[in-house]
Input
Amino acid sequence: MNLQGEKDLQAAETELRELNDQIQAFEAQVDKRLGSLLDQLSQLNAETSTLDDQLRHIREERLYGTDLLQYLDGAPRPARPRNQTSLPPLGIPPRGEAPAAGSISTVLHVPDIKILYRQLARRYHPDLARNDADRLISNDQMKEINQAYAAGDLHTLMRLAGMRIPFSIDSQPSQVHPAEIKKEPLSDLEQVNRKLKTIRQQIRHLSSLPVVKLSLDVKLARYARRDLLGEMVGELQYKLARKIAERDYLSAQIRASEEHLEQ
Output
C-alpha cells in the first residue's frame, strides 16, 4: 500500500468536501437574498418573449392577411435564439426546497433532475455574472443546461455539475475508462490514483464556477465595507422594473393590434 498516495487522497477528499460545503453555504446565502428576484426576472423574460412572438404574429397577419400567413406558416422558419436568462417552463421545484444531499461529491448516486437543474440554473444564472466575459460563459452554459433539462438528459446535467456518472446511466460507453473493461482487477495503487485524479478534476471544476468568483468578490467587497449582494439586489430590482414596463408595453400593443383587426 502506498502510504503517501493514501495521504494525498485523504487530503484531496477533505479539500473537495470543504470546497463543496463553502459553495453550498454561499449558494444558500445568494438564494435567500436574490432567489426570488431571479425567479421573477426569469418568469418575466419568458412572458416578454411569448408576448413578443404574439405581437409579431398579429402584425404579420395584418400585413399579409390570414390566408397568406397560413401558407407561410407551412414553410420552415428559422429558429429564434432563446433568451438565455429565461428558464424553461418545466416542473421547477418551489423555492425553499432542500437541495440534493451531497450534490457534488464522490458518492455515485442519481440526483433528482429538477433539483439538479435548479442548482445549475442558479450557479450559471447570467444575472449573477459580474463582468461581460463571465456573462458570456454563463449564457453558453445556461443554453446547454436548458437544452439538457428540456431533453431530460440527466447524464449531461451531472457532467455539468462535476458529478461522477454512475455506469447505470452512462449513455456514452465510449467514455468508459479503459480500466473499466479490463478483466483483471485494479491494484490498490491504481484505485487510489484513479480516485485522486477524479477528485482533483472535481476540485478544478468547482473552483472555476462563476458562483465561486462571485463569492470572492463578495468577500473583497466586505473588506471595503460594501454589501455586494445588496448592490445586486438593487440591480435586479431595476431590471425587474424595466422588464415589467416592457411586458406591459407589449401587452398594450397586442390589445391595440387586436382591436384594430376587429374593426
About this structure: The chain has one domain: 3-72+82-174+195-262. The chain has a mean pLDDT of 78.
